[in-house]
Amino acid sequence: MENGCFPGTLIKQFAKDFTQAQDRSEWAEFAGGAIIFYNVGFRIKADGGRIQNGRQRHALNEPGHKTKEVILEISRAVERGQAIYSKPILTVYDLWVLGFSNKFIWKCPTYNILNNFNEHVSSNHLDIGVGTGYFLDKCQFGTGNVNIALMDLNQNSLDEAAKRIERYNPVKYKVNVLEKINIDTDRFDSISLNYLFHCLPGNLTEKLIVLDNVDHLLNESGVIFGSTILTSGVNTSRSAKALMRIYNKKGIFDNSTDSLDDLKKYLTKKYSSFSITTHGCVAIFSAIK
Ligand SMILES: C[S@@+](CC[C@H](N)C(=O)[O-])C[C@H]1O[C@@H](n2cnc3c(N)ncnc32)[C@H](O)[C@@H]1O
Fold first, then answer.
1. Domains in the chain, ordered, with CATH?
2. How far away, in angstroms, is 195 Cα from ligand 1 center?
3. Segments in 251-286 forming alpha helices (H)
C-alpha cells in the first residue's frame, strides 16, 4: 500500500483491533492477509494523476477490431474509482480480492457470486466492470455459440479480461457507465455488474443510474445481476470496517453510505421482479424488467 498507509495506519489499526478483539482468530486472519497483501507488493495509487484538465482519451473497441476514439469528460472521483486497476494490481486481484478479502474480510466467499453468475448468465452476455474476467472465465455458458461483450473504463481491465477469455473472442467497450452509453450493438440476454457500484462515486441511488444507462442494452426478457459491498443493513466485520475506511479515504471505494435499503428501493421501483441475498457485507442481486 502507499507509503504512510501501510504499515503505519494499518498496523495501528491492527494493534487497536487486537487489544479490543473478542475474537482474536478474526484479527489474525485479517493481519495474515495484510502481510500477504504487503509482500506481493500491492501498491495503491488511486489518484494516479492520469487525468489532465478533466479530460481523457478513450478508445471504443468495436467488432472487427475497428477502434473509434472518443473524448469523455471524466470527473476526478470517477477516475479514482478505476485508477487502481493497473497491470500489477490486476495480477494480484484474484488472490487478494476474490481469494482472501471475499472470504475473510467481506465474509462472502467467491463461490456465492459465481453461483449467482451461473444461475443467470446467458450465451449472449455483457459484463460491466470486468476486472480480471474471473467470473467469465469460470462460469458455465452451456452449449452453442457464446457472444460476450466487455465494458469498462479502464483499458488494463479490458485487456486482461479479454486475454483471459480470448477463446470467446469478446468485444471490448471502453465506457464510463455513469454516463449515457452510446454504442452500436445488438441487445444482450444477460448483463452482469459485479463489484462495480462500490467503486463509483456518489450515494448509492446516484450510482444506480448505471442500471438506467444500460437498460437499452438488455433484451425485454433479459436478466441483470451482480453484487456490491455495502456498509449499512448488512453484517460488516470490524476488519471490513477498517479496510473500507482506508479504501474510501483513498477513493478506491466510495461506499460509506451505501445501504441495503437504498438498493432494495431502487430495484423495487425499476424492475418487475428482483432478488437480493446478503453474505457478510456483500449484496448479491438479480432482476428482470
Ligand atoms: C472491483 S473491479 C470488479 C471486477 C470484477 N467484476 C469482479 O467482480 O471481480 C471494478 C471494475 O469496475 C471498473 N470501473 C470503475 N469505475 C468505472 C466506470 N465509471 N465505468 C466503467 N467501469 C468502471 C474498474 O476499472 C474495474 O475493472
1. 5-288 (3.40.50.150)
2. 7
3. 260-270
Nearest to 100 by CA among 45, 164, 30, 38: 30
Q: Three-state SS for 200?
A: coil
Specify the pTM: 0.83
- Tell me which residues of the chain have a pLDDT lower than 70: 1-73
- Quote the cell numbers at residue 123: 450465451
**Which residue minimizes the CA distance to atom 18 of ligand 1?**
176
36 residue type, one letter: I
Could you tell me if the CB of 195 is within 6 A of ligand 1? yes
Per-residue pLDDT tens over the stretch 115-166 = 999 999 999 999 999 999 999 999 999 888 999 999 999 999 999 999 999 9
**φ/ψ of residue 115, rounded to 5:** -60, -45
Peptide bond into 88 cis (omega under 30): no
CA dist., res. 103 & res. 47, Å (int):
27
